[in-house]
User: Fold these one by one.
Assistant:
Number 1:
Amino acid sequence: MTVTVERNDNIKIIALDGQIDVATSDKTRDDIINLLEKKPTIIKMPKVTYVSSSGLRALLMIAKTAKSEGIKVTYAEAIPEVVDVLQMTGFIKMLHCVPSRPWRTL
Amino acid sequence: MRIDLHPTDTYGEFKIRPGLFLANGTHIVPGGINFTIYSSGAKSCELVLFRSHEREPFAVIPFPENYKIRNVFSMIVFDLDYENLEYGFRVDSEYNFPLGNVFDKNKTLLDPYAKIISGRDVWGEQPDWSKDFQYRSKVSLDDFDWEGDLPLRTSQKELIIYEAHVRGFTKDESSGVKFKGTYAGLREKIPYLKELGITALELLPVFEFDEFEGAREIDGNKLLNYWGYSTVGFFAPKAGYAASGKYSMQVDEFKDLVKELHQNGIKIILDVVFNHTAEGNEHGPYISFKGIDNKTYYILTPDGYYYNFSGCGNTLNCNNPVVRSLILNCLRYWVATYHVDGFRFDLAAILGRNQDGSPMNNPPLLESLAYDPVLSSSILIAEAWDAGGLYQVGSFPNYGRWAEWNGKYRDDLRRFLKGEAGLAHCVAYRIAGSEDIYDRAWRGDCASVNFITCHDGFTLYDLFAYNDKHNEANGWGGSDGGDDNHSWNCGWEGDIDLPDDIKYLRHKMIKNAAAILLTSIGIPMILAGDEFGNTQYGNNNPYCQDNKISWLDWNDLQKNQDLFKFFKSMIAFRKRHPVLMRMSTGIPIGYPAISSHGTEAWQFDYSPENRVVGILFAGKTFDGKDDFIYLGVNAHWESHGVWLPALPKNLSWQVEVNTDLGDNAFYDEPAPINSAEKFVIGARSVIICTAKGV
């Protein structure tokens, strides 16, 4: 799993690449939380191929940490298989997810 | 850093240490996983580790001698990838069948406390029977973001139970949901349940079972163990019911279903099967209990064979202290970690049998469940009989806590509604809370779960569409399923070329049943789909039918809107009247809370030919005003005029329900009644009147 900051001006865009599973979830979570600043943050997901149970928890904890600091985090462009997992387990209701590229309007 | 969570030994490449002996099953601890297992007779035990779905284990770790305290083995193994891990145990000791010891060190066994079980991850996917370890324990993450949710605290008096099968509820294309036949699909239907107004969803078994147990092919149709009354593991939600089962995320998916039900004010009750397991008798497979500690977990004959009080091959030894703990731990687990609100116990009479099979006066298990602190507000419902002939309706050891499926309610109502003679006075008792069976002083207000249909038997539509069961598709030559259905086809068997007047009568009969059920004192239970006339084509035992026979056909909801609207209105009616829920705070002066009437007010007709029952409920509304409800039932094939009981001077009768009026059976606006005349109740019709201020 790689975590890359693609843009950092009025908004921050963080791109993820790989699987978020038991081997990567703790580090992914910590890396992203360390990157959070007081600005809208978009986490790009199109290259995330799989999110496991521990991965779901990482995504949720990022969102919760951000919320507690007043930062809006949006998960964008997840592939259908990942969206399905988020829907089946209900985690999607606790995350802000969008199918498209919201930064185009920001 | 805790000093008891670092490795003390190595075994091959694995770092290990003695584990948490007081735990059961597996727990994730910092850096590792704790494995604990009990066996009273085992001499040695091995932990067998597999990577997901692989045929051969990647490690077999014997529990060292110092990893055992008496009968408990416990070990922490460090640095395991718990998401990609399946595990089991191999237990070795002497084989001695007459003594009940059937240990086999070659069998890899499921953890009795497994919280996730893999092997049947996707419903109906053909298993690879050549694998010798079919049902595999997995490690579960217990954390979940409940967003403040807890089991609901609303009174049991407000229960209106809706009994449904997870898969059958949404599997049919007509359900219109995305994740058909799953927990997630059921969750998508919550707005429907909310609109109907039910307050509790009762699910047929969701503990892991094998749909391929006893699978057959009849006339080209695959028959499966569709209902699932055959538990493989008590702590694991059925993976094949989860859309996410292939990712082993069924725990999260099920919890999210519970959370969303609770957010919509709907409780969840699980139908739990503790009377037997899927291991069958001496010819059945080794899955878990049999190979770990046969004589602890099963009731055995003096020569080592299995007692069969369940009719399913074996009988769980429920009042053995170890098994009792397992059951108690299981229920506590479902309440504490899944927020489940209650349980319905299948063949619950077995739970009161002694270790030799005899019924007990004060069964420790049932007493423990009744007084357990975690279960203290849980709904406990017994199916108060078993297949060994123990029938305890009304006498189930209850400690003032347990409710029962009231089989008498079902049978008396069915027979009365179809027009049998001699039942009017029984039906008056049933409607009034069956106090002849359930003494209110001992049993409380919620002992009787009233139902006319349940998963076992005809649907409500079929009850009035078939005189005889039509179980040919089950492949037993029509020998399976009950014959005491007390059904009546309204003059036309089945649906082929159905005349309109017969269809009309059937809808009226369904509304009669619904009107009585939802005004009766006790907890009403509705079978899913009855509210829109779902049919099983006359099959009264579709336990094996994973197809359109069992699946709800949601097209019927559109076709039978009159039925749905009627159920919905009746449910709302019940909720408006505390007197029907034993929640009334007082009684109007000069009236008993419940009284029975004949065609003449205050004069019940006890003659066997009488088929007219009038029940007057008198109580207070939620805002403290006098409330009167008159339920008039005419099960005769001719109409009868009845005098309604006189009301206090400031009130007059109005009719709200008359099932003789077809689509308009539930009035949009109640209609006034001329109290100087008899009210004529149509043939095979039910009326409900309420009092209105003048």
Number 2:
Amino acid sequence: MTAGPAMATAGPVAAPGRPVRAWTAAYDIRLALPLGAFFLVFFLAPLALLLLVSFYADPGMTRFGLDQYARFLLDPFSLRVLGATLWLGVEVTALTLLLGLPLALLLTWAPGRLRGLLTLIVLLPLLTSVVVRTFAWIVILGRQGIVNAALLGLGLTDTPLKLLYTEGGLVLALAQVQMPLMVLPLVTALSRIDPNLADASAALGAGAWRTFLRVTLPLCLPGIVAGCLLTFAAAITAFITQSLIGGGQMLFMPMYLYQQASSLNNWPFAAAIAIVFLVAVLACVTLLNLVGRLSRGYAQA
Amino acid sequence: MSAGAGTTLILDGITQRYGTALAVDTVTLDIKGGELVALLGPSGCGKTTLLRAVAGFLKPTEGRVIIGGQAVDHLPPNRRTVGIVFQNYALFPHMSVADNVAYGLAARGVGRAEQKARVAEMLALVRLEHLAGRYPREMSGGQQQRVALARALAVRPSILLLDEPFAALDKNLRLDMQIEIKRIQRSAGTTTLIVTHDQEEALSMADRVAVLNAGRLEQFAPPTDVYDRPETLFVNTFVGTANVLHGRLATGPGGTRVVALETGGLLPTVTALPDGTRVAACLRPQHVAFATGGEGLDGVVEIGLPLGATLVHEIRLDGGARLKTAEARAAGARPRPPGTRVRLSPTAPERVSVFPDSRH
């Protein structure tokens, strides 16, 4: 950013809401130092190391080369794992949005006490361990699980359905686990919308659907983008849930990476997988952010 | 489709309860087509509740809303052909001015070509043709208000509702917009209801004023009547300023009616209430005259203020009550110095309005 002399001369009478550059410049760097140091040591340095390791040509790490990247990008199996992982993220995000948006609307419109209860229910997954939540889903989806027991008891099916270790079951479990990440940004965005806008829309002759599609939905787009980003990132990297609910038949990037590093001791290939995954995720995030950029103008003054 | 100019609006015995609290208590208003009516009252008097009942945002506990001879209580807001301008304008922030104005037309299935023509017509009406492509956040408060007005009028509503339309505008702009809205309302001929707590606004703009207090309709009359012939003590003190003196009615020498003040002294009045009634007597400051002799209330000047064109005095009567006076200030005239003994009387007995005293 260019904090030119023009900004400096603006002095303390800068436009309201805009920070006065001259004042902040002297302080913000020092205040950010602890966090900066933390990031440097525990985030940037390991990342640089990861990048370095990925450029070793052989598992013994004796010479440099782009062999690991070539191996990943030319291998249909690896590309399928990457594709399956990103697709899983899309499915989970779509389901979470589909279920989360009505829930967020309900939460926004609910009267005080009900609102508190709903908020607690939404937040509950965040307050329990991932492992516990995942095992709960195993109990629900297993062959002798709650769903199958209910279906059998009602006579709706003769043999237990295979729910666990299926992609459908995994998407469902991930959607539940990531729900708060979608609902909370949505509720924030929805509660910022002036309630008079919906009344104005109705008074102008619009029905509930038109009001939702033309007013509510566009105005909460920033919340949708934020929620999708969080859900997507969390779903594709959910190592524990992916492994336990997905089982052995489905392989996703985190497990693939883990196998290479831990079982096969192929650190350079594991590092390359990590970097490719990182780039792919960043590309998706950038794409979503572009959508968010388009909606930025909607934020109310 | 649109009922057009001059739709009548009847509020028939509207009552709104929230739990045990009574927000509106059987208010009945019969509004003529094309009339501009102000709902005037302090905050919490129920005026906004009435407005929301007409718009259909809430269903009153009792009573009916009748627009153009048809009860609309069963209709949701989007089927009522009622236009509303909110206090904060509630423009759609993600739409341009033209799209905002076209919104209601699109919702009612008006064709594209006609939408465009109507938007142009409305923006011309509010003199904002040149800003059609702007977004609400890029406009001033006054401009936003005119967009809100254009948006509400574009669908040719049978009734136009304005909720505290001038509260967010600064004083200079307020008068301009009041004149502007009056002009637009006249040319469109739309029956209009303005909610306001500002008495000047109500008195200057409205054809008739409905004064509300604690959910009850106190008076529904033309502005001059509300000011000159207030029907209740509340109206007399809320609209304009008034000195309130307490006393008991009596018949004075020569058969004239007087209020025998609790603090001593007699105040002539005209009333049909019987002798002995405990009353609150109201006298506006500009109707108090300094008497040179004869009968009146004696007191001393506490303070005198030269307020430009008027001269205001606060007088402490001998009985202890305080009275404000206001008179036109002649060129070079100064206020009477504090301590000056004066004798006061109403400019005419009719100027003293008396109301049964509700004090305990």
